[in-house]
Amino acid sequence: xxxxxxxxxxxxxxxxxxxxxxxxxxxxxxxxxxxxxxxxxxxxxxxxxxxxxxxxx
Length: 57
Known about the structure:
It is built from one helix and no strands. The protein is mostly helical.
């Protein structure tokens, strides 16, 4: 009985590596975006507080 064609494990490994790189990049971009947003919110809150202090003080 004949065996089937050989499995192409090299391409599968490269594909998995590529997908893992893509996932890691997306995760890093998401984290960076969250940090930028957090910094922006902190800056706006600081400005609000400063404006409230200047109006009340």
